[in-house]
Every structure is written in C-alpha cells, then in structure tokens.
Please model this.
Amino acid sequence: ALASAAAGRPSGDPMLDFVFGAIAGSGPDAVVLAGERLGSASGAAALIAHGAGAGFGYVTRRAGDRGALRAGVHPRLLPGGRSFDRAEERAEVEAVWGPIMATDPGRDTAGILYAGAEHELDVLFVVGADPLRDLPDTALVRRALQNVETVVVVGTELGDLAPFVSAFLPAVPVVERDGHLSTWEGRAQRVRPARSSAGLSRPDWEIFAGLALALGGDLGFETLEEIHAEMGRLLAPREAVAPALADAQNVFAAPDLELFTYPLLVDEGRSSRGAHELKATFEEPAFVEVHPDTARAHGLEGATEALVRTNAGSATLPLRVTDHIAPGAAFVPFNQPGLAAATLLVSGAGEPAAIGSVARVAPAEGVA
Model:
C-alpha cells in the first residue's frame, strides 16, 4: 500500500490515498513532517513525500538529534548529510579528513548488539546512554554486554551498567558543556556551561581526543575552536538529511492487538535521573491505553487494570480507555516507573526487537 501511494497509484487504503492526494494537490510548496514514532515504524512519510514531490522534514524528539545526523552519527552517513556509498561525497569528506579506511558502512544499533552478543566485538563503547533502559530488546543488550570482553562507558554515571563495565570515563553533564545544539530545523544554538566541571569529568570530545592520542592516533583537534573550524568545512556545504527509512512496514497489520510504545517527555531515562522535583511534577506511572472499541471487544469495559502479555513477557498496568488511540492497538509508555516496556517487545531471530509487538490485553482480575 505504501509503495502504491508513493507512486501515485491507488493503494487500497483510503487514508493513504487521501493523504497523498492532499499533498500532491498542494504543489511543490508542500512539506511532510514526520516525528520519531512515524519515522521508526515505517517509511510512509518519506515515501509519500518523495512520490508527491513534496519536501520532507524529520522532527526529532531530542535537542541534538538533528545535529548528530548532520555530524554523520549514522551507519550510512558522513558529515554534512553525505552518503557513505557515494564516491563523490566520500571524496568531499576525505579532502578534510584524509582517506577513509572503511570500505563498508557501519553497523546500526541492532547490528552492534548482535555482533557483541555473538562474540564478534572485542570492545564496546556506550556513550551517554543506558541501553538496558533505552533500547527495545533488553535480552539482546544483556547478551552483548556479557559477551564483549571490554565494555567502556562514557557518561555521567554507571547506573545498571556497573556489573558489565571494564572502564568508566566520566563525562560532564549538559549544564557543564560548551558547544552547540541543533534544532530539528538544523538551526545551531550556542550552549555555554552554567558551572565548571567537577573532578575528573571531561567533555565527550576531549575524552575521545585523548583516547586517540593514547592509541597513537590524532583526531586533528585539541580545542573546541578547532572542532568548530572543522565543522565549518564539513557541514556548511550540505544540509543534513534524515536517514533512509529502510524496510518500510505497516506495523498495524497484526490480527491481534498491536502493542506500541514511545518515550514520554519526562520518564526514567538516563538524562532524568536525579531530577526529583521535575519528576514529582510531571512524571506519571506506567499504564496501558486502548480505544473504547478495543475495550468492548476485549472485555475491558469497567476494568481499572489490564494484563498485557506478549511472547516476551507480561505486565499488569492501570488501564486507560480513550478515543485518542486507534482501534486494534494498545499503547504503553516506553520507560515509566513500574515498567520498562522493552521487556514486552519481541524480536525475531536475527532481527531487532520491534517497536510494535503483537499483544493480548485482558482484564487483570481473574486472569491467570
């Protein structure tokens, strides 16, 4: 259906056909904006925008995500949104960096974890993240952390990663950093430290520059000003693009309820740890949300709690019934108190855990 709509042919899906027709009828000034949920679930937005001749914008969830893409923090991208696979674009980067030794694109997050789990990696760096809470396949993450000989964490704390870590390199928190953040539009915003760094903590760039020197290499910069100068040469010529949304799929095609999840603004993520006043004001416990039609079809009317069960696990959660969700789907927040939704997500053999997994939802009372 997506491919047909993107090609301007009837797709058999009235909603897709309506959206495509509206965009195509708006002329070249139309712009399709896709957020993290649509971007991670399927390539519908990018395909339809391309097919209709419209612009496409990827609205990232966090400040700095767009900047990471511009910097090339993606397995198929180089700085400035250049493609790793295009010789002329590689040459533009090599004119600044020198020869790029790698001949193949890098691994994505799932590929790195699978390689670690299969003893194919000697060293794993975890930078500014807690994969046990941030990623959808907790079992895969644990296997990778256990099977990689050397695990290095660069961050402000160890948290749940402590049992797996070989070395911890303390980084400064955001309030102690000097640099830039990029909005989803690509606008750079200057960030200056509100206080000086404590103890041995250092900015991430300084940690990696030091590691390069210790290993007999050189990243080509020793100051933030030198980094900014290199950014000017690499990022200015091109505009960053969103990564290709490969393997487009319709995640709502399952015959049973489709369990989907995404992070709420204030959650149990790594960057919110210690923000007690913020959490007391805005954070809420985990829950499951379904449409009224779904509640009637699954015997959930009048229930206050529901049992959510997948092939990966189960959880009993407070139930919310609202028409703000599609029938046939169930939503749980990704990382709220009382549930790490990654424990419910199912992965296939050799594939990353799906952001949407088939689930059964029933009243908690009387369910074995």
Q: What stands out?
A: Confidence is low (pLDDT under 50) at residues 239-255, 349-353. The longest strand covers residues 314-321.
